[in-house]
């Protein structure tokens, strides 16, 4: 029973990381109606930037904040420079741009920072067992950080005029323009926020999986499964789906398929959702009259 409780709590901790990345995916999807395949590589680049800042002697939390700001700027630049020129292009053009962005950022990160695996420091450490030894200090701390970020994002979109303008630009750009919303810049800010959220996820997961240019590949797949499970067009649903995938992954890895085949859990969830309920648990079913 203690082992089961440990797997559930650890799954919630990793699920918080998946929820953050899933939220970033949903934000890009709402803006472009496409999935950003390079979201993981952008988060990995941000984590390497954070490590460089920390190694320069900057305190962890100051480096954490600086990395979020830098990542936000990177996201805005990517939208303005790469995505804006092809915003009205066919779907395959967007897919090509995302794949190209994945390859460029992934290989560029390896070229600049190297391909060797690096240890990333954790700001959470405790020699005392937490919750009866069921959870480590980093798992508890990273869960608190990601939950805090998700709450701040929720409050931003629900209770600020800028957040409401970004939601309007994502849901109905034409109507938003009619009431004076600068849709182009709202989409750029959405990209920036998605990059910043991904950076937080990268910095929280790096102490566990260690840092290398391919660190986020598996995590992106789990996050995508969470986004589909909760609803790719529903930010709250994607967050819930991310936590659910984290728990399911841990339980399946411990009691069903083993640690070597845990990635198949994400693939099974993706296929199952697409076959049974493509809109996800909390997504909208959109119908159109022909």
From TrEMBL:
Entry's Gene Ontology BP terms: amino acid transport
Membrane topology field: Multi-pass membrane protein
Keyword field contains rRNA-binding: no
Name of this chain's protein: Branched-chain amino acid ABC transporter permease
Keywords, sorted A to Z: Amino-acid transport, Cell membrane, Membrane, Transmembrane, Transmembrane helix, Transport
Pfam families named among the record's database cross-references: BPD_transp_2 (PF02653)
Gene Ontology cellular-component terms listed: plasma membrane
Stored CDD domains: TM_PBP1_LivH_like
PANTHER family reported for this sequence: ABC TRANSPORTER PERMEASE PROTEIN, BRANCHED-CHAIN AMINO ACID TRANSPORT SYSTEM PERMEASE PROTEIN LIVH
Main location: membrane
